[in-house]
Write a structure and sequence with these properties.
Mean pLDDT: 80
Largest sheet: 5 strands, mixed
Shape: flat
Structural class: alpha+beta
Strand order of the largest sheet: 1-5-3-8-7
Number of strands: 8
Strand content: 5-15%
Distance between the termini: 66 Å
């Protein structure tokens, strides 16, 4: 049963993150609502209510068709224009930012709700048109339903105005950067900061299981997996970190005893792999997206160092917070037994993946170099007491200076860099300090 629940959970995640999910649900709700309205339209209590608001109701069937037809045509135009705006945002994000930010923009709930409201109002109005002068009905015009349709049309126009306001914000690079930054920071906060670690047992005689599918390892169902291991009396070691890309047939996990093929198939259902990179799945994807936005901004086609500088500032805060995270190397069960061992994402790997591309594309720009030095400076100050990553950060400062050395050719640039080096040297031992340019 748990196996099927995990498979259903995977499909659920894919469906919920689809751009068509909320519009479909809302459209079906409006269809049910239209049927409900038609059922109560000619109820005695509703007829009495309509008699009190006759001035705002439509009684002529020709006028009713004209009004509903106008509403349907207008809402279709609004829906097409709104959907076109969403496509423009996605196209702009792809060309000027990074294709990796598209899943986050597509899954924006407000845009889906607006499109769903348009679609539902159209379906509602079409059902009303069919019921005008319908055979076997005492009253030829569903006047209350038409009145509700008019209200829905007014609400749709209000949503359209707010939609334009929302889309004009979401198309801005600062808004997208801040959104990714906040989501990444939240994911870092949610990471288990318990630094309890257990030495990994000797796995040389363990059986290696290959990956059943390709994709990014997004999630491990920890509670379910630990109970599964306890039930079948084996221990498990995950050979890749969460956020890593796994290729089909790649050595994925190690198990302490031989299992039936059916049990191994059930075991794979506790791991979620797919190709999209959503920040809500793991903080590493947020780091990657901000870094790629910075790299894209530094490309000759975009040439926007200001965006790259802001991205580096946001990364400096996130990296400083990441330095404080010390993830466990195992997933405990209810009895705190080390049955499932995992591989936390090494800090040095995150640094390499996000900083090196920015350094490579921005090594000719002194403003980018200075910001990178500021970024590392903040991290060194944050690590001044524990000194866990000081040597790593020193190597990055040396790397920045080496790669940009041939492009630093005037006194003003050198003085700006020296100011940062002086600040960095204050936190270092004498033998570790950098020589000024």
């Amino acid at each position: 049963m748990k196996h099927w629940m995990n498979l259903l959970s995977k499909y659920y995640q894919r469906i919920v993150n689809s751009i068509a999910f909320y519009p479909t649900i809302i459209a079906l709700a409006f269809m049910v609502f239209s049927i409900f309205v038609m059922r109560i339209e000619f109820n005695d209590l509703v007829i009495e209510l309509k008699s009190n608001i006759e001035r705002v109701l439509v009684h002529d069937s020709n006028n009713a068709r004209l009004i509903l037809g106008t509403i349907v045509g207008s809402l279709i135009s609004l829906m097409v224009f709104s959907f076109s705006m969403v496509m423009i945002v996605l196209n702009r994000a792809t060309s000027t930012l990074s294709p990796r930010v598209i899943p986050g923009l597509i899954s924006d709930k407000f845009h889906q709700i607006v499109l769903g409201f348009y679609l539902g109002s159209i379906i509602y109005s079409l059902i009303l048109i069919v019921n005008i002068d319908a055979p076997g009905v005492d009253f030829s015009v569903p006047s209350l339903g038409i009145f509700v349709s008019m209200i829905l049309a007014i609400v749709c126009m209000g949503l359209f105005v707010y939609f334009i306001h929302s889309i004009s914000q979401k198309i801005q690079v600062d808004f997208i950067l801040n959104d990714i930054y906040k989501l990444t920071k939240k994911e870092l906060t949610d990471v288990d900061h318990d630094n309890a670690k257990i030495e990994l047992p000797d796995t040389s005689d363990w059986i290696t299981c290959l990956a059943k599918d390709s994709g990014y390892l997004k999630k491990i169902d920890g509670p379910g997996l630990t109970e599964f291991c306890k039930k079948h009396e084996f221990r498990l070691n995950v050979k890749v970190s969460i956020g890593s890309f796994v290729v089909k047939e790649y050595p994925f996990i190690e198990i302490s005893k031989e299992l039936d093929e059916e049990v191994i198939d059930q075991l794979s259902s506790y791991f979620t792999l797919y190709t999209e990179e959503r920040v809500s799945d793991h903080y590493l994807f947020g780091f990657k997206q901000i870094s790629e936005i910075a790299v894209k901004a530094l490309s000759p086609g975009i040439n926007d160092p200001g965006t790259a500088v802001k991205a580096i500032d946001l990364l400096s805060d996130l990296l400083t917070k990441l330095m404080e995270v010390d993830e466990q190397n195992y997933i405990p069960n209810s009895e705190d037994e080390p049955l499932v061992f995992v591989r936390p994402v090494p800090f040095k790997d995150v640094m390499f993946q996000i900083i090196v591309p920015i350094r490579e594309y921005g090594k000719k720009d002194v403003s980018v170099l200075v910001r990178l030095l500021d970024c590392v400076k903040h991290m060194i100050y944050s690590d001044i007491h524990r000194k866990r990553f000081t040597s790593l950060l020193i190597s990055y400062v040396d790397n920045f200076l080496t790669c940009s050395e041939e492009f630093i050719d005037n006194k003003l640039d050198k003085e700006s860099i020296n100011d940062r080096l002086r600040e960095i040297n204050k936190c270092l031992e004498k033998e570790q300090q950098f020589q000024l340019l």
